[in-house]
Design a protein that fits this description.
Helix content is about 40%, strand content about 20%. It has about 325 residues and is of the alpha/beta class. The N and C termini lie far apart (about 60 Å). The mean pLDDT is about 90.
Length: about 325
């Protein structure tokens, strides 16, 4: 059904004259007449009786009127549901257990009036593609090479530098430490399943491993975290690496210890990325929130950052 014909029908019904309806719709009176005629032909009935004073609804016209109003309301709601100013703010957080979930939660608490839809993505490349396609409004990612990765239509800002941590079994030599020096990790094998070849986190872990002489095994993604934790709990030499805000859990009594890495503290540089021409007010608020909340490396404890972030934040 032609929505503009329905809109013309409602306008004539409410105005009582084709001329007034034409003025309201900003079209010619002839255009209104054609739309009404087309609608009547489609419905197979007469909707108006032409009178000297204008147009009066027939019985079928009166029956159709509330349904026509419902059609226009539904169209308006459907249109509004995808408009940047009215639909929820769509934000890619990578995974439900990742650090960006906390960042987005902080934003929601500070901006309770902004409706937010959390999107689970597949990494930086997927985030960029979804942003350019208009499927999301913003996303958190690690950018390996800003000049090479970021499309000119996109903008970004650093959002959070997430410290790294190590998980070991309680019988592991490091288990009783309050913190673990980065250099000490080189003595043990790190099992970090789920490192996708070519992903930004593969680049991060490779840089970290090369700097401190680590042996990082990325295999075993399909077996799930339970098998990883079981193996680590039973080992005196195996460990895994996670972000400080990464939500990983294991059954009570499994026998694991989670320790911060220090001297230096490895930092995973999360950036917030969005369309530079965004019209979504929520996206603008989110970018402002990220800029205000970001804390750059201080002159305190030594930290390690991948090359791009070191250069940006020097």
């Amino acid at each position: 059904m032609n929505v503009e014909a329905v809109r013309a029908f409602v306008a004539v019904a409410e105005e009582g004259q084709f001329r007034f309806a034409a003025d309201r719709l900003d079209v010619s009176q002839q255009a209104v007449s054609k739309r009404i005629a087309a609608l009547e032909a489609e419905l197979g009935t007469t909707l108006f009786k032409r009178t000297p004073s204008g147009a009066a609804l027939t019985q079928d016209g009166r029956t159709f009127l509330p349904h026509a109003g419902a059609i226009l309301s539904a169209v308006s709601a459907a249109f509004a549901s995808v408009q940047p100013g009215t639909r929820p703010l769509r934000v890619d957080v990578l995974t439900r257990g990742s650090g960006p979930v906390d960042l987005l939660r902080d934003f929601c608490e500070a901006n309770p009036a902004v409706p937010v839809e959390m999107v689970i993505g597949g990494g930086a490349a997927s985030t960029f593609k979804s942003l350019l396609a208009g499927e999301i409004d913003a996303g958190y990612a690690y950018l390996r090479d800003v000049s090479g990765e970021l499309d000119p239509a996109l903008a970004r800002t650093y959002a959070f530098l997430e410290p790294g941590e190590v998980i070991v079994g309680v019988r592991h030599p490091l288990a009783k430490s309050r913190a673990v020096r980065a250099a000490d990790l080189a003595r043990y094998r790190a099992w970090v399943p789920g490192i996708v070849p070519g992903s930004e986190w593969e680049t991060y872990f490779q840089d970290f491993a090369d700097t401190f002489g680590l042996d990082i095994d990325p295999t075993g993604y399909s077996v799930g975290s339970e098998s990883v934790f079981d193996a680590i709990a039973a080992s005196r030499s195996l460990m895994t690496l996670v972000g400080e805000r990464n939500r990983v859990g294991w059954p009570g009594g499994l026998g694991l210890a989670r320790l911060p890495i220090v001297d230096p503290v490895p930092l995973y540089p999360w950036s917030l990325v969005w369309r530079a021409d965004t019209q979504h007010e929520g996206a603008r608020r989110l970018t402002g929130h990220a800029k205000r909340s970001f804390t750059p490396p201080s002159a305190g404890p030594a930290v390690w950052l991948p090359r791009q972030a070191r250069e940006d934040l020097a």
